[in-house]
Write a structure and sequence with these properties.
Number of helices: 2
Helix content: 25-40%
CATH superfamily of the domain at 30-91: Chitin binding domain
CATH class of the domain at 30-91: Mainly Beta
Number of strands: 5
CATH topology of the domain at 30-91: Antimicrobial Protein, Tachycitin, Chain A
Strand order of the largest sheet: 1-2-3
Shape: elongated
Structural class: alpha+beta
Largest sheet: 3 strands, antiparallel
Amino acid sequence: MDRHRGVRRTAGALVLLGMFAVAISRAAEVTLTCPAEDDIFNPVHIPHFTDCTKFYKCFNGEKYEMDCPSGLHWNIEQNYCDYPEQAHCERPLQIDPISLE
């Protein structure tokens, strides 16, 4: 019995470690600043640091806070507001919030 409990704990710890690594790798790929010039074919959006229902839209080098429609979360991977189960939003992001200023 005790042996199985130890295996479960180890497996649980590995799962948590894996989830943490994925969260950090996703956050590391996130754009934090708006480009000086806009590209209408590739708009830049920045996820909100603490709120899954918000994001920033870049325009002329400036960030503007936006809200997703009710019930939706910002999907970092797809770059749009999506259903929470698809967005897999985890906050706070594992980035330096000062970089978002």
